[in-house]
């Protein structure tokens, strides 16, 4: 691929406040070409995550990006949404009412198949929700692997969990799907809580978004303000971590994230550990080293990427803000 060409990507997501920021980064950075967006149940039910993806793309001026709805439940078990974190809509906080694009007339797995097979360049698949759609794609259409460059997913951890003591939300929502993806043999990059908990939306970060002279900046500030409140209430965090945009940053600027190659397995049966990602950082198991596991993050560089993308997308002036020039880099 021409190193100066935009890299083709598909984002599979369950918006979700941090998924919304991930979509804005995928649309707003010129180094990526967003082929399509697929949605999965996770942070909220499938109708709500799909509506939220359409709303965010509309605010970003990207209604031409096809959106397809995917799986409404995990492969095994019942869906448990994260309403305590993301609210009843899945994107509580900002006013996102207004016209949006339409949902594609094909399911998510079929849209992914078409986009991957028809792409002139290998596609990077970025997953920021449960891996149900991705697992079904690989199981139903194994031929797509020939034109998949890499799967980057936000999920898991080398350390603690956030839904159970050892399991992160995206993985524990559908551990069987994560297991399928990690055993696929494809190049994978895991962006876990051990790294995403370093990207904190501080008061200064939120103020930087708020100071942007466009509605989109205000939307981001409102998203993060609501997110901050739920993280403070549920976890006691002074500032909320923004998980999902880091998976997009890994596709845009890999040096922003430090990774190490490791074997990763998903615990499927543990009474207390179902959904945990077992990361063999010290290579004790002898398993094949298939996954690039994020272990460090250039936090300032990450926020510069996201801020620049939101500024690039622009949008109409926010009437609540006085006319002013664009803000400087943080």
UniProtKB/TrEMBL annotation:
SUPFAM superfamilies registered for this protein in UniProt: Nucleoside hydrolase (SSF53590)
UniProt-listed CDD domains: nuc_hydro_IU_UC_XIUA
Cross-referenced Pfam families: IU_nuc_hydro (PF01156)
GO BP: purine nucleoside catabolic process
Every Inosine/uridine-preferring nucleoside hydrolase domain range: 9-304
Record keywords: Glycosidase, Hydrolase
Gene Ontology annotations for the cellular component aspect, listed alphabetically: cytosol
Keyword Hydrolase: yes
GO molecular function: purine nucleosidase activity
Name of the protein in question: Pyrimidine-specific ribonucleoside hydrolase RihA
Annotated gene: rihA
